[in-house]
Amino acid sequence: MKYQKHPISIAEQIAKLEARGLNFDDKQLAAKYLGNISYYRLRAYTYPYQNNVDPDSDHHFMRDDITFQDIIDLYVFDRRLRSLIFNELEKVEVAVRTKLSQIYSESTGDSHWYEDKSLYDSAAFAIQMDGDTLFDDISDDIVGDVDRSNEDFIKHYYNKYNEPDMPPSWMTMEVISFGTLSRLYKLLKTSNEKKAIANAFGIANVELFANWLHAFSGLRNCCAHHSRIWNRRFMVHIKMPYNTTYSFMSKADAVDIKQNKLFALLTALKYIVDIISPDNNFKNNLLHLLADNHRLLSLKEMGFPDNWKRLPVWQK
């Protein structure tokens, strides 16, 4: 099928939304918003309230009390939530970089340990359909991240040294992406070093910690690219443990948590942030944000269970 829709003016956008049942208190103000926040971006916040099943409904709103300002309020809430989460994820990312570099560098005595094939799991060397291995892929990703870096310490390395080709771990780990960092940890074979890193974050199981890093990486990308996280179903299902070093939640509670919803990610994030930054304000800032008057906001849509404040991890 050929795409044949034509661009429409902001006035036509307002008229279309109004025809579908959205209420407008101030169309001039709405036009200003739509001049800075695209109609298509706001579609992510109107979609759950529209009839998207019946083709004859033309995406009509299923409630007659929703206003354009309600949609803007929801959009602003999501933007503020992304900023809050991004700030906490930064702490986790920096801490993981530090632990990974320090522990492996000290243990191996090798400044370039990440190039040592003996440190990787055998699965990293299985040939893929494209003829490369996962070790090839992660090596290429690390090289690419370093090449794209504008950090002065990377420039200094190449200005002063001509070998090895890559900077030492304590430089390289600082410039690779969270996604590369996550994949690197996953591909390393289970060892005392890998366990020590997970243990430093209160997790005994290295596979579970790898899952958390993978999920955090996806969440970070959503925040960094201004994607909707309210009411989102995340592709990486984050696992909920019940045998953590510090208080988390019971096995019965863990079973009921929706692993593809935001609450599961927030819970894992809070657990780790409480370890690396004990005096953090994450919980208070989140409670303050949730307490604001958002008429359309439903915590259930983000996976919050009714008893979430009573879970041990959220009682601090």
Write the topology of this structure.
Elements: H1 10-19, H2 27-36, H3 39-46, H4 68-108, H5 134-148, H6 152-160, H7 169-172, H8 178-187, H9 192-200, H10 206-224, H11 251-256, H12 262-276, H13 282-291
Helix pairs in contact: 4-9, 4-10, 4-12, 4-13, 5-8, 8-10
Overview of this protein structure:
The chain is mainly α. It folds into two domains: 10-66, no CATH class; 75-314, no CATH class. The protein is built from 13 helices and no strands. It has helices at residues 10-19, 27-36, 39-46, 68-108, 134-148, 152-160, 169-172, 178-187, 192-200, 206-224, 251-256, 262-276, 282-291. Helix 4 crosses helix 12, helix 4 runs antiparallel to helix 13 (282-291) and helix 5 (134-148) packs antiparallel against helix 8. The mean pLDDT is 95.
Summarize the structure.
This protein is an all-alpha fold and 316 residues long.
Give the termini separation: 55 Å
Order of helices and strands: HHHHHHHHHHHHH
Radius of gyration: 23 Å
* Computed structural class: mainly alpha
As residue ranges, the low-confidence spans are: none
Number of strands: 0
Described by the principal axes of the CA atoms, the overall outline is globular
